[in-house]
Amino acid sequence: MQKIKLDYSEVIQQLNDVKKQLSELHLPSPSETKLGQNQLTFTKEWLQREENLQKMVIQYMQAVQKNVEDTHANVDILKKQDEAIVK
Length: 87
Hints:
Elements: H1 8-24, H2 41-86
Helix pairs in contact: 1-2
């Protein structure tokens, strides 16, 4: 029979690394003031597209954060179950 072993410290370290990288991720939103007096249709569409991308990146980051938190909670549960079985 094969054993599956949870290396708790390694998993938690990886999760902490993901959290750290996620917190350092920054995508600045486009600045309309840098465009000056430019009133081209393309410029307006570009700004709208950039705003949409910004929103999608924020939603993605929130989803990753939630997944990391859920994984951390599940790993904690597995560790407690393993400790209970050993006792």
